[in-house]
Task: structure prediction
Amino acid sequence: MPSPSLTIHTPAGAVHATAGPRQDDAVVFELGGAMRGSVHVTGTHHPRHWDQFTAVRACLGPVNAYQTTAPDEDLPRLARSRTGYQGSLTLYRDAADRPQVTVYPMRTDADHELSEKTAAVLTAVLRACAEDVAQRADLPAIWDAARQRDTPSLLRFLIWSVSHHQAEAARLEREAREAQPARRAAVADWWTVARWFTATPHPILLLMLADLPHFTRPHCRRHAVAVPLLPGQGRGRARARPPCSGRSRIPACSATQAHAPEHPG
Result:
């Protein structure tokens, strides 16, 4: 059974929440102690099942924040503070019948972000009020009233959502069909260039190929290079490379002596 008055321990101190008489689809709690103001608790649909009204939603303020906006002077405030707070929380059970909470963004009446301490206080108060309503014997009546209240707007949203996504799917399909000819033309152009480049290499490429043995074969003795040493050996020193082999197709040992054949074109 719900308690007529709750004592909620928060980082800001104890908050007292007293439930008023049930309205058609909600219960409003009056706050005292470390926090003053109101919390509105009503039924709502499960976050993953729009047609199952098995969840409870708590909003800061005396009204359902999903239907109307509470005046700034009616928003909850911490003791000795003039800042009002907005936000809500949904309490539901998962497939394993474990309680889960979804906290929606909470901000000040000036649309500023909250500190971690203030957010923890508001979350604790909202959750305690939601859990109290979830234990009420008249909770099914609250859910039935919430279903009658929200089902028409949910159906309108689902109809809009279906139409919107159908239009998006048609647009993406149309763009894909229009892009296919251009994509095929681009691929064909690429293969044409690749075949031409293979059959008729560019002179720069031939020059690079002609110079390739000078990077892969040992250079002449007069070209000294730094040889990396194994661990334990002394400091690195320049070591002369052996002379080029006489059987090399490129007789010159220097890249500057390599000549590329003329372009066949």
Notes: Residues 139-199 form the longest helix (61 residues). Residues 215-230, 236-241, 244-265 have pLDDT under 50 and may be disordered. Residues 44 and 150 are 8 Å apart (CA to CA). DSSP finds four helices and twelve strands in the chain.
